[in-house]
Write a structure and sequence with these properties.
By secondary structure, the chain is mostly helical. The chain is built from seven helices and two strands.
């Protein structure tokens, strides 16, 4: 997955695999590109190559696999990962792993073109409106 680096080198060895709003591993420039989601732009190339979709569960790091049951993991992996997803649209960087998992699984059950359009609209609203961070 292509992405601009927004964290210090070896960030995975310094802290947890998930980030928080005030994560000390995120650089000053990284905070800006994350807040504006510029760090996600290179992933358009992944979409064009067919490796990702615009909407779908975010690609996870291998350490997150342990959080899922085998059935949930298989369901989550049954769809192509996306640049944005239901969890990102509704939670952005807030929320627990359990909440994100529930939203990812909901997406796999309810996915449709109409639902994707709603998620893209919600994501755009979070990036540009009152819900942005």
């Amino acid at each position: 997955m292509l992405k601009f680096r927004s964290m210090v080198k070896n960030a995975a060895s310094i802290g947890p695999y998930f980030t928080s709003t005030s994560d000390p591993r995120v650089t000053r420039v990284g905070r800006f590109i994350r807040r504006t989601s510029i760090d996600e732009l290179p992933q358009i190339l992944n979409v064009l190559r067919g490796d990702m979709s615009l909407v779908g569960p975010r690609p996870d790091v291998p350490a997150q696999r342990a959080l899922y049951s085998d059935a949930d993991w298989a369901q989550r992996c049954s769809v192509r990962p996306g640049i944005t997803g239901l969890a990102q649209a509704l939670l952005r960087s807030e929320g627990t792993e359990a909440q994100r998992l529930a939203l990812d699984l909901r997406y796999t059950r309810e996915m449709s073109v109409g639902f994707d359009l709603k998620i893209m609209a919600w994501t755009l609203g979070r990036l540009t409106g009152k819900g942005s961070n």
